[in-house]
Automatic annotation (TrEMBL):
Protein name: Cytochrome c
Domain Cytochrome c: from-to ranges: 60-151
Keyword Transcription on entry: no
UniProt keyword annotations, A-Z: Electron transport, Heme, Iron, Metal-binding, Respiratory chain, Signal, Transport
Secretion signal, residue range per the UniProt entry: 1-20
Entry annotated with the keyword Zinc: no
GO MF term set: electron transfer activity; heme binding; iron ion binding
Known cofactor(s): heme c
Matching InterPro entries: Cyt_c-like_dom, Cyt_c-like_dom_sf, Cyt_C_IC, Cytochrome_c-type_DH
Source organism of this protein record: Sphingomonas cremea
Length: 156
């Protein structure tokens, strides 16, 4: 009798876990993967696909990008862009790790970064806010340059 009861529990446990998890929010990484999957399959949305940073990356631009990043992004993405900011710790999904953008060619990174900042993550069930109405194009391009440079002036 105990052997049958043990077998029933062992068999039912995975089903119970699956049912319990079906009510939970999406895993922390799913929104980040959804954005990347959309880009891989369809590219950056048309209004952003041809966007390129019109100004050169100067020390002044990187300094401005650092200031805008510190003010608007670091609390969630962390000072170094790893997705480890204090306000982002409890967000589901977790804020994206932005370090990989420094290794992405500028012609591919520019439209992706601008789109991500401008539109935020609402369509991916992410709490990333859309900044297209609160940041100027100059500020968004400055942050883009700062990210592509590998977040060189990260605050403490």
């Amino acid at each position: 009798m105990i052997r049958y009861l043990t077998a029933a529990v062992v068999t039912a446990l995975p089903l119970a876990v699956a049912v319990a998890q079906s009510d939970m929010d999406r895993p922390r990484w799913m929104a980040n993967m959804a954005r990347h999957q959309k880009v891989v399959m369809y590219g950056v949305p048309a209004p952003y696909a041809a966007m390129r940073d019109p100004s050169p990356d100067t020390p002044a631009k990187l300094k401005r990008g650092a200031a805008v990043f510190d003010q608007h992004c670091a609390s969630c993405h962390g000072w170094g862009g790893e997705g480890t900011g204090p306000e982002g710790y409890f967000l589901v999904p977790a804020p994206a790790d932005l370090e990989w953008l420094a290794h992405t060619p500028k012609n591919r990174a520019d439209p992706y970064i601008y789109w991500s900042i401008a539109e935020g993550g609402r369509s991916f069930n992410s709490e990333m806010p859309a900044f297209k109405k609160s940041l100027s194009k100059r500020d968004i391009w400055s942050v883009s340059a700062y990210l592509r440079a590998g977040v060189p002036n990260a605050s403490p």
